[in-house]
Design a protein that fits this description.
7 helices; globular; binds magnesium ion
């Protein structure tokens, strides 16, 4: 545990600490067995904006990587998804939150066997690295609420954080929500907040 904390501390103090975030269940409330299909259905998880405002100061790059198979399955369109993300990013900007880019994997692997962007595939992280070459995966944290997110982060050598009650023994850290993760980052950095 001490080693892990040390690794996180070193990562946070590196040149370009980067944060990869899953969306549903991390930023907004996940709909069980359904998709968030439009902005009216999008609800921020309490404390997320405050957490991200702090994390924006610490992480040089913040990237959202989200599987949105609902598009591939025809429950929503690419435009619906873009509208959700445009409005989400606008609220972030108004609240001093910096998210550098959102990557979505919209294919449905059942219809599209060549779909290779879907997490746990690391594809979206490589796209982010193309856009932001300064990102170093070894100095990155992946935060998600599903074992797929942990697997994604592990493949890339990131520190992995699992949110929620899902007890995934493979994750480096488990917290209840993004706010709790941000509080831990403060602790590691020795800041009082
Ligand atoms: Mg999720």
């Amino acid at each position: 545990m001490k080693k892990l904390k040390e690794r996180l501390a070193n990562l946070l103090e590196s040149e370009t600490p980067s944060l990869f975030l899953d969306r549903d269940g991390v930023i907004n409330i996940k709909k069980e067995l359904d998709y968030v299909r439009n902005w009216d259905e999008f609800r921020f998880i309490p404390g997320v904006i405050e957490a991200l405002r702090f994390l924006s100061e610490i992480f040089k790059r913040i990237i959202i990587v989200t599987n949105q198979r609902g598009v591939g399955r025809g429950f929503m369109t690419e435009d619906d998804l873009k509208d959700i993300h445009d409005k989400m990013l606008k609220i972030f900007a108004e609240n001093s939150v910096r998210v550098d880019k959102v990557y979505s994997c919209t294919c449905d692997p059942e219809k599209d066997p060549d779909c290779y962007c879907r997490k746990p595939s690391p594809r979206m992280a490589y796209l982010a690295k193309d856009d932001f070459p300064e990102i170093e995966f070894a100095n990155s944290v992946m935060v998600g609420d599903s074992p797929k997110d942990v697997e994604f982060g592990k493949k890339l050598g990131m520190v992995t954080v699992l949110l929620g009650n899902n007890k995934e023994p493979e994750a480096d850290y488990i917290f209840s929500d993004l706010f709790e993760f941000a509080e831990y980052v403060k602790l590691v950095l020795g800041r009082k907040g």
